[in-house]
Amino acid sequence: MIETILVILSHPFMQRAILVGSLVSISAALLGVILVLKRYAMIGDGLSHVGFGFISVALALEHFFAFGWAPLWITMPGVLVVAIILLKIKNNSKIKSDSAIALVSSSALAIGVAVTSWSTGMNLDTCNILFGSILGVTQSDLWISVISSILIGILFILYYRKLFAVTFDEDFAKASGLRARRYGDLIAILTGMIIVIGMTVMGTLLISSIIVFPALTSMRIFKSFKSVVISSGVISLVSFLIGIYLSFVHDISAGAMIVLVNLAFFIIFTIMEMILKK
């Protein structure tokens, strides 16, 4: 096992993938607790489809005009804008949040497929976007991921108490003079960033799972907000590292393996919850 780990770490592309994936896993777990408690879990799935649409457009522009830009530089601002819009229409009387997410995600996915078919066609790059690829983590992706993850961590720590207040009782937070809408926008922006930087390793179809699974798993056993946040971070990181190891050993998609490990932890914690309640 140790020899296998040393072999994995000897490859530069695996080093980049492990660093990016570890940062994304921890950041996603932190935000996942807030999103699950506020019942925004499906927004991650919707934004992942939006990300596919934007990254397809970015790759098409690169194909025709050879801009030389990293696709994430185009995808990031687009996803952030859509994230803010989706959270702002949560209480719209005409279009409810779940309907808005379904409308936007399906439209973005259709645009992505159409643009890809028209420009480069359904090829290996498309599969990597949809399902993730540890081989696809470039040096540019690495820097974007590191900067974004550090920013997310700093903002989460700085505004921890305010995010806590907005998560559990938004109306009371507003009555107390807290600008809840501003922190709602902050949650949307951070979620959008996580979706974009995690798409390379996890793929657009699986990225939302690392946001939801660790939080739901931790809530089986732990009850306080702080303990759930810490537990989610640990579970997410451990699941990622085990998933990467098993993926390399058994030649299975990294994104799929990471999700399956998260699922295993969820089942184990659910069984532990049932035992503790007896």
Detailed description of the structure:
It is a single chain. The protein is an all-alpha fold and 278 residues long. The chain is built from 13 helices and no strands. It has helices spanning 2-10, 12-37, 41-65, 71-88, 97-119, 124-131, 139-158, 160-168, 170-175, 180-202, 209-221, 225-250, 254-277. The mean pLDDT is 79.
Quick structural overview:
With 278 residues, this protein is mainly alpha-helical.
Structural class per helix/strand content?
Answer: mainly alpha
Helix content: over 70%
Largest sheet: none
Write down the overall mean pLDDT. 79
CA gyration radius, whole angstroms = 19 Å
Shape descriptor: globular
Kindly report how far apart the N and C termini lie.
38 Å
- Count of DSSP-assigned helices: 13
Number of strands: 0
β content, as a range? under 5%
User: Spans of 5+ residues with little confidence (pLDDT < 50)?
Assistant: none
Question: Helix and strand string, N-terminal first?
Answer: HHHHHHHHHHHHH
